[in-house]
Amino acid sequence: MQIRLTVLGSRSGHHTATAPASCDVLVTAPVGTALAAVASGLAATVGGPDTGGTVVLYAGSERLDLQRRVLGEPPLVDGAVLALHGPVPDVLPEDGLGAAQLHVVAGPDAGGVHLLHSGQIRVGRSADADVPLDDPDVSRLHCAVTVIPDGRVAVADLNSTNGTTLDGSPVGAQPVPLPPGALLRVGESTLRLAAAGAPALSVTPDLQGHLSVSARPAAAALPGPLPGADPAAPGPVPDAPGLPGLPDAPGAPGAAPGAGPQGEAPSPGTGPDSGSGTSPGSGSGSGSGRRKGLGAWARKWVRGEEPAEAPPEPVLAAPDPDDPAALLLAAMGPTERLWSRTPGQPAALDVGLGAGSRVSLPAVGALGLAGPRTRLAGAARWVVAQLAALHAPGGLEIVLVSADRARGLADRRRDWGWLGWLPHVRPAHGQDCRLLLAYDRDQAVARTGELTRRLDEGPLGTHWAAADASQVRRAAAVYEGPYTLLVLDGDPGAGPLRDVTGRLASHGPAVGIHVLVLAEAPAATPASPVAETYEAACASSPAFRDCGAVALLSGDVATAVRTFTISGGRPVPAGGTTSADAVSVAWAERFARALAPLRTAEGGSAEPYRPTAAALPATARLLDELGLARATPASLMARWAAATDQGQGVGGLAEIVLGSGRRGPVGTELVHDGPHLLIEGPAGSGRTELLRSVAASLSAAARPDRLGLLLLDGAGGERGDGLRPCTELPHVCAHLVASDPLRMREFAQALGAELKRRSELLEELSFAEWHAQREVSDRMVSPRRPAPGEQRGDLDPQRTGTLRLRAATTRTDPPGPSPLPRLVVLVDDLDALVAPGLGSTGRPAAGSVVRALEAVAREGARLGVHLVAASAHPDRTAETGPARLATLRVELDAPDQPGPGRGMLRFGDGRTVPFQAGRVTGRIPRTATQRPTVVPVEWERMGDPPARRPVRELGNGPTDLALLASALDRASRLVSATPVLFPPAP
Ligand SMILES: Nc1ncnc2c1ncn2[C@@H]1O[C@H](COP(=O)(O)OP(=O)(O)OP(=O)(O)O)[C@@H](O)[C@H]1O
């Protein structure tokens, strides 16, 4: 189990490199480990316990019992913050969420959720304010919100420069009632008094550091802040005589969403499926055509028609119901609003930029966002956070490429550190990294490579880059998710990366990849007109030019935003200027940590199937690919029983697993896809190991009395007994090393005799027909088919202690092996048999062995005998029967890149599947004795391929092959499967 936590050090202020104020750590421990096992490790990351060596850890305000608290169980889950010595400062108490709250619902520093205590709460730009707002248009102390003892709330202006309004009416120095739901505007910020929040969804800890959120119908994505609008919500009372005389505020929970009669702040009736494209989204619900106008315009654009005219100017609107404060609470609850949009819904990937200005990513493709750095960062955080809050990780994957060397790594890490906590950045499709982040060029190449591979496999095919815009739109129009958001921060540098990120922006939508391009540029002002700002953004982030819509931060302090659609390479206004929503780093951290442990419940519809486009793994373990990580006799018996059923009528199947592909195990089956397989590859490419894996997987797939293996090391001599480790498999009935002419001739003769015997037994029938007939006659003698494990009276009564029902006693089969099991002949170094070296001791008899193999190649298909041969010199073996008659082929690459075992399986019909061969002579990985460890998280390295523990070749444990052979042996005894004899008994 692995969980990521943050440890806060002492607050005494002496922070150094070895004793930082806080440290993000990765804790690895077996399930069920007590916190005590890692407590001193956690403390050491922030400089250790101050005195006496006793570690004291808090989560929130609770002091943790180190012995009783278990890693992976709440509160010790992904994203947790633990403090050394004292309570975690500045947390929203979970139990306080039921109280009245002041939400900062829109503006440049949105998302704040402030619990109202009694007395005066000052809102302002100053750090001394109780509700500090990073909003340049807000005065240092701007207004005061007061809760009076009976619970009602009032607001008064504190002589601010720009004034305070409540639902559009000015507020003076005299307090006026602040009813729940009413919108309080200060500067560019909007605040709202909210009653108790929505009820939390139930979550189930998985005890591995995660909490699964129960699935719920998508219809739960209800818009609107609170149900039950009260049309009689009072407006401001200009000359209220004083607090005690205030009229009653409708303060009951669930009241008044702010649909007051003033008209300035209509109820945000925009449902999740309202509008598309960029939209001013007034959403007044009055049926006016304003919203429709822009949505229709954007839809036309999607269909590739030229828009007739620029879309209408926007109007100011109420904040989105999915405002930053609401979504923070949705994450912290979690509430029903969390992950409420699903791919394919019209509102999927709909982004709010501020004051009702919306962009639909599926409609525009890629979105560019430009502005001065600090404001740009806040707006970008909000765009990414809202998508993460509204879409479950199964429906939306988030990838970050922040590799612009124009900015220092520390700055980029600070900007994006929060993102690493989101479950959306975990590689769920086999990507070769720990998180989908790229802070340097190598990581950027890896991330973009993963995405372009998805395009290669998508509807546009491998020549996707040549597709034109209308082809991309058509593919995008029918794409239904899941989606990828690629956040591209600045210029990734290097020509190829620039090129590929631009192409991902323009063509990615065909497979659900939408790029958010962030570009540093001056705010659009009269001094820097739109066209200039746009060009500056394209210069600082080249993919900006490939965006279908751009949002430019504008105004003197860059707290406003203007949205444009790109038409003919130029920005066309898509809306007016609205105030931009943005969130702080602290908000984003809090939000992302709340999401960190959450997962959708298993089987939830939020995790749709996606064909993975991952790269092949650098190494693979055959037992893992076989699904036999822990090979036990019971698991093998179950497998054999299932295979016996599947192979009915053809005399049993011969399933092979070669290794790992991009989508899971790769293999083939000799009866239907074969009959024969040829493996070709240069020296050291892993041919021998692959033959061993073939032997191991065939053994795992069929009982030893149904399938026998013959091993033949064709090179003889010293280098020629590579298949010897396989002789432990109970299925192996002979192993020949081609060095002794006498034994070689005997082997060739025996093989020839076996073919003859089969031919006589079958008469004119094929192997499959003969078995099918026998099954029918067997059933006529004994209608009840024995259950698996019961066949041929095979349970040992002493072992089970029960008397066996001898259902099989009436059967006519003689005990012992079937007279006609399948046989697979595995030949290594076929080329050495075909063209033996002059000094080879087996040379005189090589010809007779090759002739026997030729006979198998010719007649084997009908007789149930298969060949799997490996050749290092295809030129020498090309004309032989084993090569010509092999319908299945494996071509292994040279072993240098990336290592041995990389190859391609080619089927008879021309289909090819790349794979990494499964290792079977490696030593078993030791995970059972894992010691708990605490290591600092290096966010900038999370995009690297995970360090793989080298296979311990020198370990003294058994190899995987030995482990499997021993389990197979025990399983074969339990089912009394007498192995095939070779040569067969006369
Ligand atoms: N799938 C694999 N994964 C990891 N290592 C492998 C794999 N296959 C082979 N190797 C390693 O590569 C080396 C060469 O493997 P192997 O002997 O199977 O190759 P070969 O093609 O038969 O070579 P040769 O030409 O020497 O006969 C060995 O050290 C082996 O352990």
TrEMBL record:
FtsK domain ranges (all copies): 663-901
Residues covered by the FHA domain: 121-171
SUPFAM superfamilies cross-referenced by the UniProt entry: P-loop containing nucleoside triphosphate hydrolases, SMAD/FHA domain
Amino acid composition bias (Low complexity), ranges on this chain: 242-271
Keyword Translocase: no
Region (Disordered): 222-294, 776-800
Protein name: FtsK/SpoIIIE family protein
Naturally occurring in which organism (per UniProt): Streptomyces spororaveus
Taxonomic lineage from the root: Bacteria, Bacillati, Actinomycetota, Actinomycetes, Kitasatosporales
